[in-house]
Amino acid sequence: MRKLATIRRVNQILPIENAENIELAKIDGWQCVVKKNEFKVGDLGIYFEIDSYLPIEKRYEFLRKTSYKKFADGREGFRLKTMQFRGKLSQGLLLPLNLIPELTTTELGTDVTDLLKVLKYEPPIPINLSGQVKGYFPGFIRKTDEERIQNLPHYFTQFQEEEFECTEKLDGTSCTIYYNNGAYGVCSRNLDLIEDDANIFWKITHKFKIIEMLQNLKQNLALQAELMGPSINKNPLKLPNLEFFLFNIWDIDAQKYLLPQQRAQFIHSINNLIKHVPIVQKCIKIFEKTKTMEALLDYAKGPSLLNAQATREGLVFKSVGLIEDTTISFKVVNNEYLLNE
After folding, report:
1. What is the CATH number of domain 5-120?
2. Helix or strand or coil: residue 293?
């Protein structure tokens, strides 16, 4: 589960030109605008990441003008997203500990997401994506949710010599299709869905005959892909047709992701019947090339490889080989894309 609200330490305070009442605070790899003199370097605070959905409470009322969001079903709250103030990027919210009296600890890194009833912001699911539910997402498959690099600043020194595959991050909806000892299924991000051609997840599974493909291979695998195209998430890349872009393969028996080269071999073995997410670089020492957080965030900017007229959402990096018997991966979201959400 994503840690949306945590106790963090302020690393740096920077002035904002021509701003009398605000300044910039840096927390790990993040930065956000705060009231002037509210924090000093070394102070602890509660940091709420972007995509946090805060409950309606008096202490958050100052967010109403910029962040209030109400859904058709009556749910309401404050959604945190990337913004700019006086030309400075602000991501998330940093509050002093004294505004959170229910805290039982001030230990650095403590996750207070549940304590503060913070949810991950999720837009309403269209009918064609929701489907009829068979059950929860299978426990024998890892869910698709890469960590943002801003929460992993230690990677810049820890993995400086490691090689990574770099792919384009696509902003559609994630889909997992699995075959496991004769059983099979199709999942949205959080749910296992009943077979139904009216549902986009099953429609595209049948279109590419993916279940049959997995049955013929007789391997216990889960294919994880991004569904893109008309009627999905406003179709940001303006794709004319419904598309399936593979980005991960989970080996159910080994409980590990296949490495990039193994994934490429799988695509070749099925005669390229399904597409792979666009590959930006097959092999790059990204922490040698971009030595700072700012440089890496700049590297994520650029046009999509699927539509040169559209801005890409960002990049995903996966280790080319195993690191301490596991794969290392993370995402770098394009801040220019976030500002236009």
Report:
1. 2.40.50
2. helix
